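Example 3.
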Amino acid sequence: MSLSLSSLRRRVTPRALGASVALALAATTTAVLASDHQDTPEVELSPRMDINDVYAFPGSSADRMVLVMTTSSPITPAQGATAGFDTNLLYQLKVDNTGDGVEDRVLQFTFTGSGPSQQVTMRGPVAPNQTGQMTTVVTSGPTVTGATNTNLGSATGVQLFAGLRDDPFFLDLEQFFRIIPDRKPATGPLSQLPDTPSASGWRPVGQAVDFLRGLNTLAFVVELPASQLTGTGTGKIGVWGTISR
Amino acid sequence: MSTRRSATVLLLAAASAAAIWSGYVRPMQRLQAAEAASRERTQLEQHIRTEDIAFWMKRASEDPQSAEDRAMAAGLLLQRAREGGGLDDYRAAEALAREALALRGERNGKAGLVLASALLAQHLFPEALATATDLVKASPEATAYRSLLAELLVEMGRYDEAGAQFDSLAAVRRSLSVAPRYARYLEFRGENDRARRVLIEARGEALAQGNLPREQVAWFALRVADIHLRNGRLDVAERVLEEGLRDAPDDGRLWALMARLHAARGDWERTLEAVDRVGDSMDIVTRSLAGDAWAALGDSARAREAWHATEQQALANPEPFNRQWTMFHLERGMDLNATRALLEQEIHVRTDVFGWAQLAWARLQTGDVPGAQDAIARAMATGTQDGWLFYVAGLVAEGAGDDVTARRWFERALGVNPHFHHRYADDARGRLARD
């Protein structure tokens, strides 16, 4: 199976200050194409809503694959002891298997409890109740439920881990800011910021430092039969993640 | 005693015990359990912060070019300083923020914000103002920067400029980073009721968020209680302080304000009990208040001991614009010429309401009545409604021989707050009673 790499890291950033609807979990979202940590002031202020990265890669056998979404980084080792997912949020991995950029399958994750003793429920993969920015929690399809920070499900079916993991992203952040002093917009007040790079390339091996070293993230890792995602589609999939209130 | 009578007595005893259990013991147990849970949560937050400071410092040592690691450590040191009032942590936060800014001047607002806040906490107002101004220039859309700039303008006595900044923040005035600062500005403008409403609403929002550190939740209780206390609503202030102490049972700032509240009531035993709970964050006002309490209780030796400790504390940590220190001298008529000289010098830099008011009192006490009249007029030009301010205005008017005006100011002082000061409120009443 081949993956549509261009869509691996597409993501939808939720409107962070929208009304919280804890029971219905209806979500209103604003589409933003972006990648990696702390992209907007909204998610900097609401780190539990911050999607760090979405990954998809082949699984433990040729007919299986792995989907990963990381959130909430950076979590320091000391913070890890109490870190937990937000019980008022709906976390989703969405899969397009027909090439039209619209989700055909969703994996939905919700949580109860607090801190490291939370319970996760994963619903799907299943067709969503509604595509696009508004959706609700699905009531049909397979579910996996259990404690966070443990391996759930079965090795031949759907396997799930939801919990604290070392953040796999790798970046020499300090040098990044020297190469690109500010990721400024084209218009508006911020466009007036000075543009004075003080470096033109990465620091060499031995001097470069991975900023994410030692920092943790709250991750969803799902391994499952690829056929559950591709269905009767083209055999190629696009994957993205969302977090919604 | 008959069997029936014995049974009745037993039933009554059991009923009384049950009533005491459900009406007193159980609520007390619940209260103690809530306090224990709050204390546990606070200790956990403190532990995590200490570990995190060490974590980011270690990373900073591993990467000599990392501005981010230094900015992160500086931010946590600032947070710890606010909670414990530690000057060393403020200085360390300032030093790390400077290092971070030296490594990366652009896109480093986090370090800039910490630097300006640490400077503000150390009363280094001009440099703090310059730093905040730079932050706003670089990112004019950032609410946090403009809010800090507005606060600094208020501190410097530049109220019109502060007002313009707050006008530009109108859409976000209810946010937690703006509301407390805006409330302080409103107080200087004499809008005490509106300021109180803004603060109460902000505290409600802080409580509703549920995930704020205990230190910040306690700070909102402190601000709300303080404004009630300064406007003479002692019972409400006490209730808010008690609520705050349930969230943060060992918060020294809350205990310091509780000490002032008991002093305002003249309850000196409880004042001293509260002072004992303040801990490491004891400021000059609280320490000298302990001396006043001992004096009121007739123990002049312990009073002198507390006042001496106050002086030692101030001399060990000299800082500019230390209004608590100058007030300590003015209240006791100590070193008046030197105190006046210091205030004269500082008013050129920081032209705030209470700077002018202290200078007015210093000038009055050193025999310069016209100078005192000029200073108090400047202090009152902003429209601030404050009991102590009006009291000083009364003293100045009295010094100028205008007893009618003096009476009016003493009455207004007591009208704003019948308990505006544990000593001078009674003094104002005494002066009014003399005629």
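Chain A is about 10% helix and 30% strand. The longest strand of chain A covers residues 64-75.
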